Amino acid sequence: MKEADINWSALGFGYVPTDYNVRCYYRNGQWGEIEVSSSETIEMHIAATALHYGQECFEGLKAFRGKDGKVRVFRPIENAKRIQDSARGVKMAEITTEKFMEMMETVIRLNERFIPPYGSGASLYIRPLEIGMTARVGVKPADEYCFLMLVTPVGPYFKEGFKPTNICLTREYDRVAPKGTGRFKVGGNYAASLVAGEKAHELGYSAVLYLDPKEKKYLDECGPANFYAIKGNSYITPASESILPSITNDSLMQLARDFGMEVERRHVPVEEIPTFDEAAACGTAAVCSPVGEIHDLDTGDKWVIAKDGKPGPVTNRLYDTLNGIRLGEIEDTHNWNVVLDF
Ligand code: PLP
Ligand code: COI
User: Which residues, including other chains, have CB under 8 Å from residue 94's CB and lie 6 or more apart?
Assistant: First the structure.
C-alpha cells in the first residue's frame, strides 16, 4: 500500500480525492449489491428527483487512527439511524443499518492509505449520501435511489482550529421552518443557509447562530453544528424541533453528566446569552468549536463569552475527553467506537 502523499497536519475541511467510493442502488423495491467505484462522478437522469425537487439526504461521520494503530469509527449506528430518519423525512427508501455498516467498512478499508496517522489531528471523514434517481416532472417521490459513500481526509472545520471564533445572530434569515425539515439532514437546509452564512463570513464571523424560526426568541443551532453553553455546573443546549439531533452534542451531554454536571436541554432565550461562562458549536465537523463573542446584527449587542480569548475549562475538558475516546487514549465506557481491526 502506497502511503498517500498528504501533509496531514495542514489539512483543512475540504475535498481530497481518494481511491474508491461505494454505491448501492434501490430498484424494484429493494437494495442491490454494494458496488465499488473509482470514478468521482455519477450518471443520473436530467429529470431525477434529487436534481429538481431536492430529494436527497446525507450524513457525516469520522474514522480515526488510534494510538494502538486500530481504526475507530465514532458512533456510526447513530448516523445509520439518522439517515433512515432523514430518508423518511423526504419520502425516500431507507437503507438498512446492516447495509450502511457494510458500505462504511468497505469504503474505509479500500481507502486505508487515506486514514490520517495518529497524532496528526486529522481524521477520515465519511460522507454517506442518498439521492432520488427517477425522472419526474410532477412533484412526486422517486422509485429508484442511489446510496453512496465517499471518504476524504479532513482537518478542522473552522480554519482557526480549537480557538474561539465570533458568531452572529440575526432575525433576517431562517435556515428551516418551524415544522419543516430542520431535524433531518437534507441538502435543502444547507442551500437555505448559504446566503446568511456567506454574509456572516463576509462580516468576519465563523457562523450564524440561528434563532427558532417561529418566535425568534430562542437559540436554535449554529451553522452546520449544534450549540451549547456552560453556566456554572450546567451544560445548557437548546431543545428544538427545528435543529438536527447532533450525535456529538448527545455525546458531550453524556460526558458532562460523567463529569458530574447538570445537563439542561431546554429553550434557551437570547436574553440568557450574557450569563454564559462558555459557549461552543458542536458537531462531527466542528467537534467543539469555542465561541469568542456573539454579536446581534439587528440590535448591535455584543457579548464577550471567552473573556481571555481562550477556550474555557469545561470545553477544553470535553474536547480532550471526546478526542481521547476516539483515539483510543481514554477508555470508551459508553461503547461509542466501532473498532476496525486492520
Ligand atoms: N446541526 C447541523 C445543521 C449539522 O449539519 C450538523 C452536522 O452534522 C450538526 C448539527 C452536528 O451533528 P453531528 O454531531 O451528528 O455531526
Ligand atoms: C458534519 O458535521 O458532519 C456536517 O455534516 C456539517 C457540515 C460539513 C455539513
Answer: 84, 87, 88
If you measure from the C-alpha of residue 190 to the centroid of ligand 2, how many angstroms do you get, rounded to a whole number? 10
| Residues recognised as catalytic | 185
Residue nearest atom 12 in ligand 1 by C-alpha distance: 246
Residue of 187, 184, 159, 151 whose CA lies nearest to 62: 151
Residue 2 has pLDDT above 80, yes or no: no
Q: Where in the chain is the domain with CATH 3.30.470.10?
A: 8-154
Distance CA 32, CA 340 (A): 24
CA distance 182 to 60: 16
In words, the CATH class of domain 165-326 is alpha beta
Q: Tens digit of pLDDT for each residue in 9-61?
A: 899 999 999 999 999 999 999 999 999 999 999 999 999 999 999 999 999 99
* Type of residue found at 251: S
